[in-house]
Amino acid sequence: MFTGIIEGLGTVQHLHRSGNSFKMSVVSDFDLDNSRVGDSIAVNGVCLTAVQISSRQFDVDIAPETVSKTVFQYIKPNEKVNLERAMRLSDRIDGHLVSGHVDGLGIITNRNTRDNAIIIEITTHAILSKYMVQKGSVAVDGVSLTINRLEENCFYLSIIPHTAKLSTIGFKTVGQKVNIETDMIGKYVERFVLNPNQAASSVPLSNKSGIDSTFLARHGFV
């Protein structure tokens, strides 16, 4: 589990491809003290397992499923990536709960400045945006951000100078793709509340509790 508060940047050093998978070496710009083989590290918001690690470099294996669902299908050597190690239970959650399991991709379709902020428009599929709410949280390349404005197929972010400086979102350009992870709470709520034939999953669920969307609306929860 992660918080979406980036620890620092890394640089992709080597890509050893084998079919639709590959091994990737990343050099971090901060010391990986107390990190061990088997630890989880979010790279551009993707939860990966360190299979080899030294003071500032670690290797990860990227499976075909991860390649197909994330921006790793476009990754190149020397590219900068966002890094965050797994949170400790004693840590403050300064961002929001981020699993590191990417839901899909978005594309930056507009970028401009407004005073000290960078306003970024990201277009994505309605399947993802339905789990977003205005002023809610979203992870973009692993960065916990607030949705300023939401439309059916796009959302807008206001990036402050601190975030722009410490993560890759500050130098992303129009046309670049990014990893999107929506707030997991919305997905769980849909799973538990919707009737089985309306749920995204085809696995039938019984609702013996009597709590459904009609019950929640009647008691003022939705």
Which keywords apply here?
222 residues; mainly beta; Elongation Factor Tu (Ef-tu), domain 3; 2 domains; six-stranded antiparallel β-barrel; six-stranded antiparallel beta barrel; 5 helices; globular
Structural account:
- The chain has 222 residues and is mainly beta.
- The protein has 2 domains: 8-85, Elongation Factor Tu (Ef-tu), domain 3; 104-184, Elongation Factor Tu (Ef-tu), domain 3.
- It contains 5 helices and 12 strands.
- It has helices at residues 64-69, 126-129, 161-166, 184-193, 213-218, and strands at 8-18, 21-28, 40-43, 46-53, 57-62, 80-85, 104-114, 117-124, 137-140, 143-150, 154-159, 177-182.
- The strands form 2 sheets. A 6-stranded antiparallel beta barrel has the order 1-2-5-4-3-6. It has a 6-stranded antiparallel barrel with strand order 7-8-11-10-9-12.
- A hairpin with a 2-residue loop joins strand 3 (40-43) and strand 4 (46-53).
- The longest helix is centred in the last third of the chain and has 10 residues, at 184-193.
- It starts with 7 loop residues before the first strand and ends with a helix.
- The mean pLDDT is 90.
In short, what is this structure?
By secondary structure, the chain is mainly β. It is built from 5 helices and 12 strands.
- SS class: mainly beta
Low-pLDDT stretches: none
Relative strand content: 35-45%
Return the average pLDDT rounded to an integer.
90
Shape assignment? globular
**Could you give the count of β-strands?**
12
Radius of gyration: 19 Å
How do the helices and strands follow one another from N- to C-terminus?
A: EEEEEHEEEHEEEHEHH
Placed side by side, the strands forming the largest sheet appear as 1-2-5-4-3-6
CATH topology of the largest domain: Elongation Factor Tu (Ef-tu), domain 3
CATH architecture of the largest domain: Beta Barrel
Number of domains: 2
